[in-house]
Design brief:
The complex is a heterodimer of chains A (134) and B (68). Helices cover 77% and strands 0% of the residues of chain A. Chain A has 134 residues and is mostly helical. The radius of gyration of chain A is 19 Å and the shape is elongated. Chain A starts with a helix and ends with a helix. Chain B is mostly helical. Chain B has one domain. Helix content of chain B is 88%, strand content 0%. Chain B is built from 2 helices and no strands. The longest helix of chain B has 44 residues. Chain B is rod-shaped, with a radius of gyration of 21 Å. The N and C termini of chain B lie far apart (44 Å). The chains are: A mainly alpha (134), B mainly alpha (68).
């Protein structure tokens, strides 16, 4: 009975949703490794927020990694969802880089909150990327 | 990450700004960050729904295959 209900639920969805879901890109370990790198670096960099110079380098590194993830995911077939998520990570890390680029002193509080934003987002993206079908 | 976590962080940042502990530029930058976080939540949810649907389709195919 449970299996029948499952089948009915699937058949009741529209064709496009079914097609998209059935053909979605499968799990990619390189994609997962890149998002994990961004998450880990944002977690560890919080300890260095007192040092502006180191923090600036940390933000640049995370920005490069997120661009790498975005470019990597872009032309994998049926992978638009990860491309959108990686674009979000590019935006967030860019905001961090820009704060340091302006030359004025960046506060330790700002550094910590921006890293928290990147960390939460990278973890959310990682969870979704890790659940892609094998 | 949940919407509640973003809201709590927003409240904390606003209090710090009102107390003069972060500059206006930093505050605006963080507000833009919260907007991006919300987009991350939406995009991740979309991907997760697709993953669940993919699982359902494959289960349905298995059932249909077994019935033949």
């Amino acid at each position: 009975m449970k299996k029948l209900l499952l089948l009915v639920a699937v058949l009741s969805l529209n064709g496009c949703a079914l097609f998209d879901a059935y053909n979605m890109a499968t799990y990619d370990s390189a994609e997962y490794a890149l998002v994990n790198k961004i998450r880990t670096q944002s977690e560890l960099s919080i300890n260095e927020c007192k040092n502006s110079m180191k923090s600036q380098i940390n933000f640049i590194d995370m920005h490069y990694a997120s661009i790498e993830l975005r470019n990597f995911s872009q032309y994998l077939p049926n992978n638009n969802d990860v491309y959108k998520l990686s674009g979000n990570l590019v935006d967030l890390t860019k905001q961090g880089v820009e704060a340091y680029d302006k030359g004025s002193t960046v506060s330790e509080i700002f550094c910590k909150f921006k890293l928290q934003q990147i960390n939460r987002s990278a973890e959310t993206a990682q969870k979704a990327i890790g659940n892609k079908p094998r | 990450m949940t919407l509640e976590e973003i809201q709590n962080s927003y409240k904390e940042v606003t209090e710090l700004y009102q107390a003069g502990q972060i500059s206006k530029e930093e505050y605006v930058n963080l507000l833009k960050g919260f907007e991006v976080e919300k987009a991350v939540l939406d995009n991740a949810e979309e991907l997760e729904l697709k993953e669940q649907l993919n699982e359902l389709i494959n289960a349905a195919i298995t059932i249909a295959g077994a019935a033949v």
